[in-house]
Recover the amino acids of this structure.
DNA sequence: ATCGTATTGGAACGTTCACTACACTAGATT
DNA sequence: AATCTAGTGTAGTGAACGTTCCAATACGAT
């Protein structure tokens, strides 16, 4: 009916989904690997465990991924993409002036319910593999940097009354905001009764405002 | 000379240090295991690696410790003891009114230079093994609780002008202070250039004061 | 000098590890 | 109908794992 296949060289059209389970199997493997890596870390997660949890044989795992490291990197990449997308959506729908509050609240909310696996994943891999696998560390850093830059924008928005001081201050405090948020989340994981995530979004804003004030004062009179 | 050994049953006097290298070997194994566990986690640390780094054969490791888990527990115990001792000393030598500042500064200072291995150890084992090894998790929690209680004392001291509100507020904020400190330290590990540990002791105090204020205000007018 | 015992050295144990080889099937293409 | 290939199933590979065994050692006490 339509244009006949040109027979010069084997230009196989890559779309068309060859076998039904292709992408679905890949996702199943990534799902299994993600939860296992978050639970047990890289060294603690065996291919056998991924095979069991995903229901797919080892040969399929090695069909989609070069080796265990490559699989872990793919897991991180997918998780980072989800995270970035969520942050972007929040930013695009929040009214100005409330950006920081919304962002923090959304992050805490999301993390408090669905994302501890992701948080665990990031921390575990950073701590365990960061020193040995620079490529993975770079990927983790890139994801962290994306989050940081969005936090910086949100803080600049929150500090907008400070004029041209707002931006550098926001850049400076964004790392602190992320670090503190992350610390609180880890605290919540280790000791859920003592860290009240609901109260935190408010209080982090208050705390950062106080630190900003402190820094500005020190800037004037060293 | 002294009392002759009573021959009823084999009551061997346990003191007296039998072989010269006994305790020293045990410490060497603990040292090697501690650094390796902090670097690579539990699953990532093999007995072979501990043997190499400590210079002692596997049989010695299994002479002093029942198995790998027991060794990890001993590592944690020793690290926690050091930590507790250091905090206690700081508390006992700090003048009242400056307790919190001193404690935070000392903790950050110590951690910034000597203790990242310890921090890594705590976090890695908590994240990696916590779910599977309740005894280890309990030990980690106990150490964390000791630190928290000392922080609570220090904060109560800092808030002393608030009278009888000081203590509950201090108890409440101590967890937050620890979580934030820990978050900042992890941030420093992942991104050393962006988190300035030296500035943090000041600013954490400022931030906590602001949060305390915020909570008191909300308490009055809900 | 001899003995007992706290350690060490080294070689094994069975199991699990990451990974591979290869026959095979299902669905798309011809 | 025949062919092709993305993906699956099974059975394996050598290496590394945690752990054990036991002979060899060296020191303290006798």
């Amino acid at each position: 009916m339509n244009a006949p296949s040109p027979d010069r060289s084997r230009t196989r059209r890559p779309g068309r989904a060859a076998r039904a389970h292709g992408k679905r199997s890949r996702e199943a493997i990534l799902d299994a690997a993600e939860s296992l890596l978050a639970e047990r870390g890289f060294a603690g997660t065996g291919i056998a465990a991924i095979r069991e949890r995903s229901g797919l044989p080892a040969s399929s795992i090695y069909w989609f991924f070069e080796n265990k490291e490559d699989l872990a990197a793919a897991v991180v990449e997918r998780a980072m993409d989800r995270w970035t997308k969520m942050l972007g959506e929040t930013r695009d729908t929040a009214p100005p002036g409330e950006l920081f509050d919304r962002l923090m609240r959304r992050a805490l909310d999301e993390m408090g319910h669905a994302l501890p696996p992701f948080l665990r994943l990031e921390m575990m891999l950073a701590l365990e593999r960061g020193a040995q696998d620079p490529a993975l560390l770079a990927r983790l850093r890139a994801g962290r940097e994306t989050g940081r830059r969005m936090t910086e924008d949100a803080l600049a928005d929150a500090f907008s009354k400070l004029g041209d001081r707002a931006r550098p201050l926001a850049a400076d405090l964004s790392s602190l905001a992320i670090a503190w948020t992350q610390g609180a989340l880890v605290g919540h994981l280790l000791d859920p009764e003592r860290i009240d995530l609901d109260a935190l979004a408010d209080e982090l804003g208050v705390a950062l405002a106080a630190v900003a004030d402190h820094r500005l004062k020190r800037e004037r009179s060293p």
